[in-house]
Amino acid sequence: MAACGRELTLLAEGQVELIGRIPRSSNETFLVEISGGDDSGFAVYKPEAGERPLSDFEPGLYRRERAAYLLSESLGWGIVPTTVIRDEAPLGIGSLQWFIDCDFSEHYFTLYADAPETHSDLARIALFDYVANNTDRKSGHVLRGDDGRVWGIDHGLCFSAIFKLRTVIWDFAGDPVPEALLEDIAPLAEAVPVEVAELLDGSEVTALQRRVRRLLLEPVLPVDHTGMRYPWPLV
Fold first, then answer.
1. DSSP E strands: which ranges in the chain?
2. 226 occurs within a structural domain
3. In total, how many domains does the chain have?
4. pLDDT band, residue 3 (cuts 50/70/90)
5. Is 229 inside any structural domain?
6. pTM to 2 decimal places
7. Domain range holding 183?
8. Gap between the Cα atoms of 115 and 192, Å rounded
9. Cα–Cα distance between 13 and 126 in angstroms, integer?
């Protein structure tokens, strides 16, 4: 079984056992072990019951976690770790995302400064965040796996119909978007994949398409003219 198939099978069908709460999260987030047959792995569990009420996002942020994964997969980018929705998890419905083994002392700021070989991946995450309208791209939400692969995590505050981009990834602002990436996102201008769209509302889908069309007309990474589009804390 391919790694992604293994992960999907465990996440969707495996037994879920709570290990403990992950500290310093805005919402209640848990490390869990998932097991099935002779196989097991770890995942990050975000139950709806642990969400802090927000004035600008409806409850059910787990749906946005899943939508971000599906969007990344539909683009062929593999930015977001495998993510499913489980309704029979220990604390009720929520998202389960495959846990990335990595050095947690590394994050966006350290990778940008010390690992220039990651810059193309980091710039692609910046593009993804614009398309998904990520409101909360902290430095610690960028990981480099033990295999060297660069990931983006924590997408519960994405896809608002109102433009709310907040991110620490501004080092590539104004850079041209590579033609290959424009070709990847171009189909979204006409239609958002059904499995993504059904997790959002109509205005959010329309806004996503509007952002893509803007990029196709002006193919450069976004620039923050206000100097205020940063999340807090930064890491």
1. 15-21, 30-36, 39-47, 83-86, 94-98, 142-144, 150-152
2. no
3. 1
4. low
5. no
6. 0.96
7. 3-217
8. 34
9. 33
